[in-house]
Amino acid sequence: MRVNHKLLTKFVLSGMQKNKKTLVPFLVAGTFTVMIFYILTSLAYCPYIYMDGKEAFYGAQTIAIMLNLSSQITVVFAALFIFYANQFMIRGRKKEMALYGVLGMSKRNITTIMVMESVIHACVCIGMGLICGTFLNKLMLLVLYKIIHQPSVDGMLFSMIAFKKTLLVFVVIYAVCLIYNVSSIRVGNPMELLRSDKTGEKEPKIKILSFVIGIVTLAAGYYLALTTNSTFDAINILFVSILLVIIATYCLFIAGSIFILKVLKKNRKFYLKTKNFISVSNLMFRMKHNAAGLASICILSTGVMLLLACGSSLMMLGEKNISDLYPTDIKLVTEDAAQADETAYKNTVRDAADAVGTTCADLIYRKYDTVFAKKTDSGFSYTDANAMMQISDCADMYLVSLENYNHYTNKDIHLSENEVLLYDSNASVKSRKSLALFGTTYQIAGEVDYKTMYYILDASMTLFDRVILVFPEQSQIDQIMGKNSNQQRNRIYLGCNTKDTLTQEEMDKFETVILKRLPDAELHFKSMDEKFFYNLYGGAFFVGIFLAVLFLMATVMIIYYKQMSEGYEDQKRFEILAKVGLTEKEAKRSIKRQVMILFFLPVAVAMLHIIVASKIICLFLKMVLIMDMFTFGMSLLVVCIIFFIVYALVYKVTSHQYYQIVYGRMRDR
Amino acid sequence: MAILEVNHVKKIYKTRMGGEEVTALRDVHFTVEPGEFVAIMGESGSGKTTLLNILACLDRPTVGKVLIEGKDYTTLKDNERAVFRRENLGFIFQDFNLLDNFSIEDNIKLPLVLAGESPDDMDKKVRIVAEQLGIAELLKKYPYEVSGGQKQRTAVARAIISDPKMLFADEPTGALDSKSSTNLLKQLRKINENGQTILMVTHSNVAASYADRIMFIKDGEVFHQLYRGTMTRAKLLDKICDSVTVLMRGGDESES
User: For residue A2, what pLDDT band results from cuts at 50, 70 and 90?
Assistant: First the structure.
């Protein structure tokens, strides 16, 4: 039979009208996802940040890389999310399609309808997403600039590359959805489809294999996360344990939940109570359908919370990191090639300062040797150049002679020949009394004054344990140095604070003067690197917030869909229960219980994941920056609370909606 | 004393906008004695569903009272009504209204669970009614795994397990084939003979012929009544058919 296209169009439109309640969220979520992807991509290719290898400001490339990375994450995520929402949509429409079939439409006609619908969906989402994205783009750029302390710029942006990419990615996603829909509709004859909603289903069985896999992977993931003690292990283990926990979450939500419910059902005293009787049975079937969705919610929530906590704690620690990296406004490290004395070096710096018309305050001079050593049980030994080294077994070691040390500290300490002063960043070995150093055992006579000596620590080496040793004689240091290849001799640290922040020109001039006299010097200006770090943290924070919003939206959406579909399923059920004599109060309680469990189970598990993960994540972040557990813990706590409040609000709204669906119709009578 | 007393019940529906009024029940007045098996017959639109909804506490009459053992339950609050209903009334519906996520056993147990009985008592009672209705073998199955007749017998079991004062049946054979229908009606008859008062709404002449008394409702009023007396079922069926014909003729006349 040929059906004319006008009629099909009418079917499409009326179908969309009828499914408004599920369609609108689908379109909104789609639009939102497109928009986020477009904004991230267009910012990544934005001339105000980084384009054609040209940075708009110092450090912009890092931000561009982060933006790019996050837009890729968005793609993966968008695909998963749109598939999910699509599946929900199509489930509700199967019956309608079957009805068209019964009314005499051929499968080709139905396919035509579906294609038309998909085209409309895609057009609306992509179109709206691009339009909103284009308008919000500028605003987002300004927000980003604000976060990274950049002065704002004028001009609109429209990125052709981002436009094309967005189009490509989402057309593909919607096309795959369409193919899935068409193929799922084609299966089965019309009568079967019509009935598909009515056929009852068996109580789910426990999937033993998933259950076992879930338990094992969870145990393994948690074990790895909890037993990791160093940043290096964290780097290797983090992704493995994340993967394990994700697998475990899915398996346990799918199989574990059923297992628990079955056990509860077996317990007749518990099961045969009004409130449990209804909830347990309902939950069992809920879980059969929704376990994967709940697991997704759980993982998304975990992701959102961790992302936000990482971002905000990095932001909070930014200041601290910079002051750690730069004890002074200007920092200069060089090798004492000229074998000059302290005054000569200090004068060099003073001269340079004079040249740019500023004065140097708190001029600090430190001389030291550094060696890269291997940790042993009783102390340190030389690194073996030929062997593969376990990086976590290494320490960055700074050696200072007692004479110099006494000079820097204005103290008069005496050490006998086999005594040293020690500072070790690794707190766990602080209780040591003696130390085996490169074959000789020394007694630890005391602690190095950290405040005086911390200037010499290389902040970029925070990954390693950092050790400062004060030896009685320079000759002992020379002896150690003589045998080690992994070393830097006669290092000089010079640092000072300037009266005013130097301008770019002044910095350049300063540098020229210094480099003329000390060609090997590494010169750092705090104010300049500060900017770079703001870019790094700010960029990460910005991207983090974006992804968090995306995840949160997805979570809310999934929950909404869940409650909707469950509400409609439950409507009939509670109607029957009301006929049998369930009071509205009991129904309300039972619904509340059921919705609560479905709602808060994923968050509860997410919070458990976070608690377990906090240590390893913190260690991981130490790779990027100096990080302290307390700040991270606090920001995690704050993020959790905020998330919980948002979630509870969503619960409030959704459960109300749910109750309306379930009980609203009965009320009308 | 009558177990059920329907006292000049009137039901008027108002449209949502408050415009037109529709009278579903004009003036229904009858009583049911303990142990009676009453059938209410009528065309669709005659008001019999409205009447049943009112009797079942699912709806309130606009005017009039419904008393069960002298207690007027139409004035109770919603929650109290629900409790009253599950303690005193049993229901059978045309579309069974079984919960598809409960096994047959749990479906039957439902009223007992709501009443908060002990698990052992439940098992005992379930066994008795399941035996009585011939569904003892099916207890572990789920509704979708059994036939329509078996589903309806499950529904009957659920309705009578709490030992209700009245059993309401709304078109109980409506979704069943003739063999299952006969089977079910015989079961109902048997239950009635054990002392259960039954009120059944139907438009099947055959189904009505199993009752002791048949009331015909038309345009919201009790139009005619038939008593079985000493008649056989076949004889009663003839009578019912005659009445139905008269009822239909009368309808024609009044319309013209």
Answer: low
Domain boundaries, chain A: 1-200, 203-328+528-669, 329-527
At the fourth CATH level, which superfamily is domain B4-255?
Answer: P-loop containing nucleotide triphosphate hydrolases (3.40.50.300)
Q: Kindly write down the DSSP assignment for every residue of A371-401, as one continuous string.
A: EEEEE-SSEEEE--SSSPP-GGGEEEEEEEE
User: Which position has the token pair 């030929």?
Assistant: A386
Helices (H), A148-202: 160-186, 190-195
- In this structure, are residues A114 and A185 in contact, taking their beta carbons and an 8 Å threshold? yes
Would you say B186 and B193 are in contact if contact means Cβ atoms under 8 Å apart? Answer: no
Residue A222 has pLDDT above 50, yes or no: yes
CA gyration radius for chain A? 33
A274, B113: Cβ pair inside 8 Å?
A: yes
Rounded to two decimals, the pTM is 0.72
- Helix (H) / strand (E) containing A445: strand A440-447
Give residue-wise pLDDT tens across range B69-87. Answer: 888 877 788 788 888 888 8
Question: What 3-state DSSP class applies to A64?
Answer: helix
Residue of A nearest to B96 (CA): A576
3-state secondary structure of A55: strand
Question: Is it the case that residue B256 has pLDDT exceeding 50?
Answer: no
> By the 8 A CB rule, do A275 and A586 touch?
yes
Amino acid at A45: Y
Query: How is residue A274 written in tokens?
Result: 């009004």
Total residue count of chain A as it appears in this document? 669
At B46, phi and psi to the nearest 5? -80, -15
What burial class does residue A108 get, using C-beta atoms within 10 Å of its C-beta: 0-12 exposed, 13-18 middle, 19+ buried? Answer: exposed
Residue A389 pLDDT level (bands cut at 50, 70, 90): low
Residue A207 pLDDT grade (very low, low, confident, very high; cuts 50, 70, 90): confident
ipTM: 0.83
**CB–CB of A272 and B114 under 8 A?**
no
The contact set of A with B (CB < 8 A) is 199-203, 268-269, 272-274, 277, 281-282, 284-285, 573, 576-586, 669
Nearest CA in chain A to B102: A281
Q: What is the pLDDT of residue A477?
A: 78
Closest-CA residue of chain B to A275 = B114
CA distance A209 to A252: 11
* Token pair recorded at residue A599: 């709602």
SS (H, E, C) A586-639: HHHHHHHHHHHHHHHHHHHHHHHHHHHHHHHHHHHHHHHCCCCHHHHHHHHHHH
Q: Tokens standing for B205?
A: 């002449």
- Can you say whether the dihedral through the CA atoms of A27, A32, A37, A39 is positive or negative? positive
**CA A298 to each of CA A253, A627, A650, B38, B102: distance values in angstroms, whole numbers, following the listed order:** 10, 26, 15, 57, 28
